[in-house]
What we know:
The complex is a heterodimer of chains A (382) and B (312). Chain A has 382 residues and is mainly alpha-helical.
Amino acid sequence: MNRNTVRLVMRREFVERGRDRGFAIAVGISLAIVLVSVLIAALVSNKNKTPSFDVGFAGSRAAVEQQIAEQSAPTYKIKMTSTIIPGDGVAAAQQQVKDGKLDALVADGKVYVKDSVDPKLEPVLAGANLAAQVPNLEQVQPQTTVQLAPKDPEAGQRKTVALIAEITLFSQMIAYCMWVATGVVEEKASRVIEVLLATVSPRALLTGKIIGIGGLGLLQLAATIAVGLGAGSATGALHISTQVWQTVAIVAVWFVLGYIFYASAYAAVAARVSRQEEMQTAVQPLNLLIMVPYFAAFAALSNPDAVWVRAASLIPPFSVLIQPVRIAGGDASWWEPVVAIGLMAAATVGIVLAGARVYENSVLRFGSKVTLRAAWSAGRKA
Amino acid sequence: MLELEGLRKRYGDRVALDGVTFTVRPGELYGFVGTNGAGKTTTMRITLGVLEPDAGTVRYRGAPVDAETRRTFGYMPEERGLYPKMRVGDQLRYLAELHGLSRGDADKAARYWMERLSVIERAEDRVEALSLGNQQRVQLAAALVHHPAVLVLDEPFSGLDPVGVDNLAEVLRERAAEGVPVVFSSHQLELVERLCDSIGIIYRGRMVATGSVDELRASRSERVLRVGTDAAAGWADAVPGVVSAEYGTGAATTLLLTADADDQAVLDAARALGPVREFTPLRASLAELFREAVADHDGDEAAAGAEEGAGA
C-alpha cells in the first residue's frame, strides 16, 4: 500500500466533501442543535439559580440583625445584599419596598414587604430577629448541616454534558459513516473505480477514503465542541471544569474508534451493491447497530450503575455509545474505560481487516448485490 | 515492449481466458479484436492489474509488471467512469498525481490535454454537466494525462463522431511514434485495418490469429479471385484448386481457391473459353479475415472448452 496514494485519496475526499454543500449544511445543523440545547440548559439552570434578595435593616438592632442574617444566608442557600437604613431613611426605604426595589425592610421586629416574605428569605430574617434579642450574642451558635449522603453538586451538569456528548457522537458517527458508504457506491456506480484501481490498490483507496472523511468528521466535532463550550460558559449553563475537558477527550477518542469501526463495516456493505438506492437497504442492519445502543444510552443515563449498563459499556461496539454515558455520569471505575477502549480497539482492528477484504472482493463486481460468501472468499481472482 | 503470456482466467465454471499470449512492440499500434465476450476486457483488466489472472504473466521491458510499473500505464476502461461531481480540471490533476506526477507537473499535463482535446473551457465544470462527447474527451485525457509508458484502451472509438475518431487516431499515432506500445480494442474493423500495425483476434478466450493484416492475409487457407468472362456458368467447377464458384449475372465469376491453387491455371481455363476482361485477386478485408478466423475455431473450441472445464 503506497503511502503517497493514500495521502492523495485522503486529500481528495477531504477537499471534495468539504466543498460539498451537504457538509456545510451538516455542520450548520449540528451547530444549531448545540446552540439550542445550550440555551435550553441555560434557561433551566437559571431557574435553579441561588435566589438573591436586597434587604434593608433599620432600627436599634439593625447592625446585629444584618450581621447574623449575612452569616446565615449561605446556609439557607440564598444570596443577600443588605444595607443599614438610618432612622430618617425608613420612609424612603418603605417606598422602595413598595416599588419592588427592595425585597424587605427589617425594623424593630417588623418586616416590611410588598405582599409576603419570600419563603426562602423568611427563616433567615426570623433567625436574625431572634438572635438579635438574645442578650449574650456570643452564646448563639449558628446551626451547621452535616451531610450524611451528599449529592454531587455537578451531577446535573454531568448529565447535561453526557447527553450532549451522546447526541454529538451518534449524529456524527451515523452521518460520516453514511458518507463513506455513499462515496464507495458513487465510485462503483460511476465506474470510476476501474480507472482508480488501475493505479491505486483497493486498500489504499479505502484507507484514504475513511481517513479523509473522518478528518472532516473531526473538524466538525471540534467546531461543535468549541461552539458548545463557548456558548455554555457565556450563558452560564456550563462552568468549564476538568470534568468537561475529560468528557471532550472521551468523546473524541470514542468518535475516532467508533467511526473507524462502523465506517469499515459500512464501506464493506456498500461495496457489495452497485447503486445508491440499493445501498440504503443494505446498510439498514448497520444503522440498527448504531441506533440500538444509542437509545439504550438514554435509558442508561437515568440509571448509569445498573448491571446491564456496566456490561454493555464494555462490549464492542455497544461500548462506543454506552461507555461515554458512564464516564460523563462520573460512575465508572478507572479500569472500565481502559478495558472498554482496549476491547473496542481490538474489535476495530478485526472489522477493518474483514471490511477491507470484503471491499476488495466486491468493489469490481457490478450488477446484482455480491453475496457475502463470494465477497468473503473470492479474492480478486474471481 | 509489452508481453502477455499464457493468461488464464476463469469465472466459476466459465473459462474467460484460455492462454492469451501476444506482444506489443514499442511504437506499435495494436488492434485487439474479437466478438462480444471473447475476453478483450478481461485481458485488458489483467494487463492493468485491475484483475488478477489465474495463471500467466504480463511483462514490460522484459520484467513482470508490478504495481509501480502499472502506475505508468494509461488505461481507458470500456465502462467509462469519472467522478460525476468533481470538476474536470481537478479530476485530471488528481488522476495524474495518483499516477505519480508531482503537483506542478500534474497541473501542466492536465492543462495540456484539456487544451489538446478542446475541453479547456470546461475545466471548472463538474463532469456531470458535460455532454457525453465531452465526457468522452475527458475520459481520454484521463488515460493520457500522466504521459503513460503503455496505453491500453478498451473501445476508445465507440461513441465518437467522425471528427473525434480522426482526433483520437492522430493522438494514438503520435503516442506510438514516441515509442509507446498502444493496444486498443474495437469493433470498427475498417478503422483497425487502417490504423494498426498489428492485430490480434481473440475468440472464446484464445488468440486465434495475430500479426499484421498482410500476414493474416498470407496465412489464410483460401483466396478469392474475380474473373470477368462471358463463359457459361459452371465453367470453373472442374478447374483444380477451385473450392467453390459463384456465377454472377454481370458476366463476372467469383472463385474461392485453396491456398496452394495455381491461379494461372484458372486464367488459362478462362481464356480457353473466350476473352478475359478482368482477373483480380480480391484482398480480404479484416472483417472477412475475422469471420474466417472465428469460423475456423468454432468447432474445436467448444470441445477444448469442455475438456478444460472437466480437467481443471
